[in-house]
Amino acid sequence: AIFGNLSDRLAETLANLRTKGKLTASDVDGTVREIRRALLEADVALPVVKDFTAHVRERALGDEVNRALNPAQQVVQIVNDELIRILGGQVRRIEFAKQPPTVIMLAGLQGAGKTTLAGKLAKQLRADRHAPLLVAADLQRPNAVQQLQVVGEQADTHVFAPEPGNGVGDPVRVAKDAVKFARDKQYDVVIIDTAGRLGVDAELMKQASNIRKATNPDEVLFVIDAMIGQDAVATAKAFQEGVDFTGVVLSKLDGDARGGAALSVAQVTGKPIMFASTGEGLDDFEVFHPDRMASRILDMGDILTLIEQAQRAFDEDEARRVAEKLATEAFTLDDFLQQMQQLRKAGNLKKMMGMLPGMGQMKEALDNFDEREIARTEAIIQSMTPAERQNPKLLNGSRRARIARGCGRTVTDVNELVKRFDQAAKMMKTVARGGTPQIPGMGPV
Ligand code: GDP
User: Residues 307-316: pLDDT tens digits?
Assistant: First the structure.
């Protein structure tokens, strides 16, 4: 994977520190030297490496490490901070124009992933209830317009392309006409795909710069292939001088590159990395989070993203099922059982969360939730007939006694369960009316 080697090297270097108590200046120097070597091998640009290691060294020799209970851990923290810093610090999202349409222009070398990105942006914008318009201003490559049309179809987005005989061959005019068209037809975001060359050249820059002047974009996104290695810095600088841009998009982060481009571009251009492209599909695209990328590099795993995904899957499935149930007003004991089993899955998160700071509250909630309780509930519900599970009102005294015998519990246990089920069913109705979902014994989820 990308950063694989760098991750291994950094993790190893930092792990070596962990065995030490107090750090001497020579420990720090040794570590900084290792970090420097690892970064250079990952194709990170020299000025960035110098800046990075100077900051790490200065801080590692300073008071914050001296006073720390665990100096090695503190150094890891510093390296993490500094990685976040060179990756641009904050998340930066698209800034929409106060007066629509918002104009987004894409620039970059041929093959960088501009056309693909245009489709990804359009799809995401549509999901966010925008009305994007794609503009084919790459009239250099013979089938570029057609490629954008294919992408537009996939993203269910209209493509503005030059009509035969009307401005063919003049991308500046096409881009300008497109913005006017968008204004007339109420498209609120215009995404302009521009031509790229295999290498940087003056004519290409001039054209991109002219498109920029003609359309006055709110965002100019410079798309760069993360695999281009050492050339990243020169290319980025050329585009900065030639066109200037407001943000960077790293594409092909799914590839097996050494990652130097990713680590150099934000720092060298002073422009934020806004998105990461991670595949050829239109959904392979994410907002770039410098902090998450830093922890990915430091081999701490992208734990936050992982948890977010787990939560999303959990919430969505559960919410859909509950909504369907509520529509028919039939929340049954089977649903109740399934819900508890879902919670057990969440229980597996407990281990992971124990390792994270700031997760205390969530962890406590999960601690209070008892595995054995679920096993008991399961046993009782499984002793019921299907009819009883579907319709708990059937559960009279003699049926409850039979169920208790069947699962080796007492009638009181069965009564207790039915009571909790009734509470859950009531809670489900609250959810239907728009209240906060609560799972019995767990507090808000
Ligand atoms: P353009 O010339 O800048 O418009 O680049 P394209 O969008 O045509 O992309 C060039 C090639 O790279 C195409 O084959 C894309 O499918 C592929 N591509 C684009 N983005 C990604 C990405 O994030 N990951 C991978 N693996 N391939 C990508």
Answer: 344 445 555 6
According to the per-residue pLDDT averaged within each range, which of 204-208, 223-227, 245-249, 378-382 is highest? 245-249
ipTM of the complex in this document: 0.99
185 and 211: one domain?
yes
Q: Whose CA is nearest to atom 16 of ligand 1?
A: 280
Pocket of ligand 1 (CB under 6 A): 108, 110-116, 196, 251-252, 254-255, 277-280, 284
> Would you say 253 is a known binding-site residue?
yes
Residues 368 and 240 in one domain: no
Write out pLDDT tens, residues 364-401.
555 555 667 777 888 899 889 888 988 888 999 999 99
Which CATH number characterizes residue 59's domain? 1.20.120.140
Residues 381 and 418 in one domain: yes
Q: What is the DSSP letter of 280?
A: S
Whole-angstrom CA distances from 85 to 52, 160, 361 are 9, 39, 29
Check whether residue 154 and residue 266 sit in a common domain. yes
Q: Which residues pair with 102 in a beta bridge?
A: 189
The verdict on 153 and 252 lying in the same domain is yes
Q: State the residue range of the domain holding 69.
A: 4-86
Residue 220's φ and ψ, nearest 5 degrees, are -115, 115
Mark whether 35 and 140 lie in a shared domain. Answer: no
Place of tokens 């969440």: 346
Residue nearest to atom 2 of ligand 1 (CA): 111
349, pLDDT greater than 60: no
Q: Specify whether 369 is located in the same domain as 227.
A: no
Cα 426 from chain centroid (whole Å): 36
Per-residue b or e along 280-295, where b marks 16 or more CB atoms closer than 10 Å to that residue's CB? eebebbeebbbbbbbb
Does a structural domain hold residue 97?
A: no
